Fold this protein.
Amino acid sequence: MANAQPQNDSATTPVVDRREALIKILRLAGLSAGTAAAAYWLSTRSAKPTDRLVATARRDHTIAANPQFPDLAVIHGGTPAALVQRALLELGGMPRFISRGDVVIVKPNIAWDRTPEQAANTNPEVVAELVRQCWSASAKKVIVTDVSCNDPRRCFERSGIAAAARQQGAEVLLPAPEKFKEVDLGGDLLQDWPVYQPFLEADKVINVPIAKHHSLTGCTLGMKNWYGILGGQRHRLHQRIHESLVDLADFMRPTLTLADSYRVLLRNGPTGGNLEDVLVKKTLVAGTDPVALDAYLAKAYWNLEPAALPYLKMAADRGLGSLQFEKLRTQIVALDSNS
């Protein structure tokens, strides 16, 4: 049996104590370490868009808040599949997020030509379990895709994600130039930009980033994962990376975010490569507030405050979530070692 730690009452427990306790849980979870040769974020492959698509409306895939369930679920100690199962259970079950007949995109990080052990891409077992859960909620179609930085075919195969997703019946889509549409993102910085078409047509989108270091922002988490919906010269966005991250998060509002922390790339990200940079945490953090989730992980794993990550405050100011993760309803579960 898994042992759930009850939520603290904010009326009796100081907020600062809750914050430190939540951070400590993430830092203590896990088993061993392992690290990657230094590398910079590579320029993406350009994809020339076809047919302009007028889409000024933001892609809001969110669901209604429900006070019966926590905003964040922190699960640690089990297999990748068990972590996903328990996180969804704590948040109200997959039918809370996916309805019969939905077309669902599961959006992992599949950016790099790396193995699962190198922790540069989302854990394939996490992706596979999410696909299975979508089918169990009677989804019409489940798509797994990303716009890779390295060669997409190699990234999808070497990461193990393509095989794991197909085994569960997902449609695995490699980015193709003809599938990008020019879209008005409606952002303060980002306006017309080529977007991978499946993201414009899905009913629900589940964001599944991996927690890892980034040479420009300190870390790359859920909001940074939205770079993987874009074509074009994506590297240009790094000149104003924080503004672009907020515009993307505002455009592509997910149904749910599950941050894979089974293995965490602590240094030399985002590409990784050396196992000594990888810390095995056997953890997953899931929730409906993408800002709080990023703030929590950034502080717990890299000791980064929002002041060091301007995009977090900018996103909170735009109403995309809360910086104060310690004030949210949070459920913490430690799974048995046999889970």
